[in-house]
Amino acid sequence: MYHVRKAVLPVAGLGTRFLPATKAIPKEMLTVVDRPTIQYIVEEAVASGVRQVVLVTAAGKEAIANHFDYSYELEAYLQAKGKRDLLEEVQRVTSLIEDIVTVRQKKPLGLGHAVYVTRHVVGREPFAVLLGDDLVDAEPPCLKQMLQVFSEFKGPVLAVQRVPKEEVHRYGIVVGEKVGDRVYRVRDLREKPRPEEVDSDLAIIGRYILIPEIYDYLAQTKPGVGGEIQLTDALAALKDDHPVYAYEFEGTRYDAGDKFGFMQAVITFALKHPELGPRFRQYLKELSQKLS
Ligand code: G1P
Questions:
Q1: Is the pLDDT reported for residue 1 higher than 80?
Q2: How far is CA 36 from CA 92, 254, 256, in A?
Q3: Radius of gyration for the chain, computed over Cα atoms and rounded to the nearest angstrom
Q4: In a mutational test of the pocket of ligand 1, which residue from 171, 231, 254, 258 has the highest number of ligand atoms less than 8 Å from its CB?
Q5: CATH annotation of 6-257
Q6: Residues spanned by CATH 3.90.550.10 within the chain?
Q7: Does the predicted model carry a pTM greater than 0.90?
C-alpha cells in the first residue's frame, strides 16, 4: 500500500531558542504573517492527501490542538456581530483536518522517541513525519513531491537539501548514490556529524515518509547525539534491511526554529500574501532606499 493517510507532527519541544516569546505559548503558535507556523505544516499535509494528523504533544501545548478545533463561542460571537469574513477564515481552519489525535510524549527523550510513542495510533501502515521548524515554500508541496518518489521507489523517503559544509553538524546527513532524478539510495546516514566525519552535504530537513517497520528499529535504538533517541539512528539501522531513499525536493525551506530563518520566512510569506504583498513590497523598497 503506497497511500499515506497519517502524518505525525512532533510538537512537544520547549522552544527555548525563542525565549522569552515562548515562555507561555508554544513555539508552533508563533505567527508567520497571519497564521501560526503549525497551520502551514497542517496545510501542507492536507494538500498532500493526509487524512489524520497525530500531534505528539506535552503539557503546555494545548493551544495547538485548540487551534484546529471547533470554537463554539468564537463562531457564535462572529456570527452575531455579522463578521462574515472572519467567521469564514475561522471555519476554514476548523475544517482543515477532521481527524486530529494527540499523543503525549511524557519525557523529552528525542525525535526518535517522539515518533515511537505514536506506534499504537499509526499502526502498521506507511506514514509521514513533518517537523514544525521546517517551513517549505513549494508547489507542489514538499510532502506531495515525496509521495511521488515513495510510490515510484516503494521505500521510505527523506527530504534533503544541500547545506554549506560548516552547517552539516546541525543536521542528519545522508550519504547516497544517485538512482533517479533528485533521488538517492541512502548508503549511510549520521546525526549531526562533525564536517570531517562525512563526505556529503545532503542534509535531512523535517519531512519523512516512513514505513511501520521503523517502529521495530526505534524500539532497539539507544540514546545517541545529545543523549536523545535519534530518528536518524533508527533509519541507519533500517536501511540495512529495507532500501531508504533521499529526495532533493524542489522549493525553498526556512528554518523557522531559528530566529533568522523565522524572519526570512515572515518576509517571504508577507511578500507572497495576496492582500498584503504589494503594499509590503513597496514598503521594503522604500526601506532599502533609506538603508543604502
Ligand atoms: C532534527 C533531526 C535532524 C534533521 C533536522 C531537520 O534535528 O534530528 O536529523 O536534519 O531535524 O530540521 P533537530 O533540528 O530537531 O535538532
A1: no
A2: 14, 14, 11
A3: 20
A4: 171
A5: 3.90.550.10
A6: 6-257
A7: yes
